[in-house]
Write a structure and sequence with these properties.
transcription; CheY-like_superfamily; two-component regulatory system; Rossmann fold; 8 helices; 35% helix; 5-stranded parallel beta sheet; Arc Repressor Mutant, subunit A; Sig_transdc_resp-reg_receiver; 2 domains
């Protein structure tokens, strides 16, 4: 099976057997692939070439994968999928908190890897406007303005911030469904959410820190226990 256009994916994995498995799976589905054995080699390559997605092992010989992740997220915006043999939940949560989009635990099935890759890549596709919103490009809510095209968030007093892709997509979903309870699955575009997958909760937490005066007593993004989250604000579009 081939993808429509060639998509470059960087694989940072020091285990040659695992690297071959990942590379083979990606190539079978039409993805272009470049493999790096160390974090430093990968970071140097980014100076001249950026992929659409990086598959990153946390246990690298020269530096910790978390450090690589942190450096990437301070400079670049592309998909980041962790592949790790670490079973400690705190490692996966930390990876998501630092900006990873998803993770796969070793050992894994190639089909699961490809499904995760496709899911992350979809998040980085240009947003398609909702026909119901017509040509609306700016949302106004609770004293805030959000520009869909630039991901700029502007407060009532003119302070500006630019959201990362994951937070912007989360906010757009909420803005399109104000005053409705949205489950975690809905907020993750239908992806199954396991008991250990706290990625959506971490993204909500980051978004609250930007929007709420007191994130611990949120007024805009409310938790509905046992059901999900509710965006409690009127939204207007222009």
């Amino acid at each position: 099976m081939q993808v429509k256009d060639s998509v470059l994916i960087h694989v940072v994995e020091d285990d040659a057997t695992v690297a071959r498995l990942i590379e083979g799976a990606l190539q079978r589905f039409g993805y272009e692939c470049e493999v790096f054995r160390t974090g430093s080699d990968f970071l140097r390559r980014l100076r001249g070439q950026q992929p659409k997605l990086c598959i990153l092992d946390l246990g690298l010989p020269d530096m910790d994968g978390m450090e690589v992740l942190q450096q990437v997220r301070t400079r670049h915006r592309f998909g980041l999928l962790i592949v790790t043999g670490r079973t400690d939940t705190s490692d996966r949560v930390m990876g998501l908190e630092l900006g990873a989009d998803d993770y796969v635990l070793k050992p894994f099935e190639p089909r699961e890897l490809i499904a995760r890759v496709r899911s992350v890549l979809r998040r980085y596709e240009p947003a398609q406007p909702d026909p119901a919103l017509g040509a609306a490009k700016v949302a106004q809510f609770a004293g805030w303005r959000f520009e869909l095209g630039t991901h700029r968030l502007i407060s009532a007093d003119g302070r500006e911030d630019t959201l990362g892709l994951a937070e912007a997509q989360l906010l757009i979903t909420m803005l399109e469904h104000p005053n409705q309870i949205l489950s975690r699955e809905q907020l993750l575009s239908g992806r199954d959410v396991s008991a250990l997958d706290r990625s959506i909760d971490l993204r909500v937490s980051r978004l609250r820190r930007r929007l709420e005066e007191n994130p611990q007593r949120a007024k805009v993004i409310k938790t509905v226990y046992g059901a999900g989250y509710l965006f409690a604000s009127t939204v207007s579009w222009k």
